[in-house]
Structure formats: structure tokens, C-alpha cells
Sequence to fold (196 residues):
Amino acid sequence: MVYGIGTGSKNYSYYSGRGANRNVKMPTLPGMRTRGQCKLSEKELLSKIRELAHKDAAEGTDSQHAESFQGVRYGSAEWQKLRDDYVSFASPDRVGIIKNTLSGFAGKIQSMTLTGKNSDVGFFDIIFNNCKKFGPDVGGNFVIFRDEQGNEIARYSEPNGWSFRYTPAEDARLDEFNALWKQALTDAQTELKQGV
Fold:
């Protein structure tokens, strides 16, 4: 599953390195699911899921299908936060992996001689224009980021910006959450009917 986040390369912070290329702009990372994002224990998180299910049962709603946009149903913000936190227990350290990869790229950029105007040069513009120097996961308009197992975890492309991809472990955790949510809501509805 792929989720788009963020905008194109206009979202930069400056890379202040040494040498002639010190005005190269580094990309700003958007918020994305990463290891350690959930500040609750798994037990506390399960309790919050059950609380939301009981609230939904009492109101006769289902937070999993609370929002509608152009005929498509989405989960409420609270439900999505619980889902994302639940899945994040299996998430790789996306931010760390991306920062490490970009730092390696920055080192290569520092060793390159850039022609033309060095100020306001986009970080990814340099990479895309010299893609053969950065390895097989770099093309003319994209960079793929991978975890230690070789799973694609994120991608940056022009003009689409950032997107992230679930790992197999996250997919399994997402399926687990969906089953957990359905069971919690069913249990809460049954308890409500029985007056428990």
C-alpha cells in the first residue's frame, strides 16, 4: 500500500556544508509513520481502541467509516491515529533511514563540482541530474529508500513529492488492527444490547 504525503521539492531547508556547494537546499521531511511514534504502551493503546469502540456503539456509529469524501468512506481522525499508532509498532525507522541516506548523498554532492549558479540549487535536482553517481535506487526523477531487509519504505519523486510504502510487517499489523477493531466494535455493540 502506498500513501502520498507532502509536496514537491519546494519544501527545503538549507544544507550548510563546506566548500563551494554550501548553498544546496536539503529537503524537509514530512511527518510519516516511523518506529517510536506511538508514546503509549500496547496495553494502553488497546484500551483506547476499546474505549472508542464503546463510544461508537453507544452513538450507533463506526469510526472506521466516519468520514466521506467524494463517495469514499474514511476513518475518523481519532480512529486513524489509533490505527497508525498500532501499525507503528512494526514500522521501520523511516526518518532515520531517510536521513542517513540523504547524508550519504550530501557527502557525494560535496565532492562534486557544480557548474552554474550554486545558490538555491535543489538537493534532489542535483541528484536527479547526476543519478548514475547515486546507485540503482535513483532515477531521473525519483529516489527510493529501503530498510535493512531491502523493502521499499519511502520514495521521493518530482513532481509528486514524498510517499511511503508499507513493509510486509506493517501490512500484517494493519490487518491485525482491522480485525481487532471489528471485534472490539462487535463486542461493544453486544454489551450495549445486553445492558452490560
Remarks:
- The two ends are 39 Å apart (CA to CA).
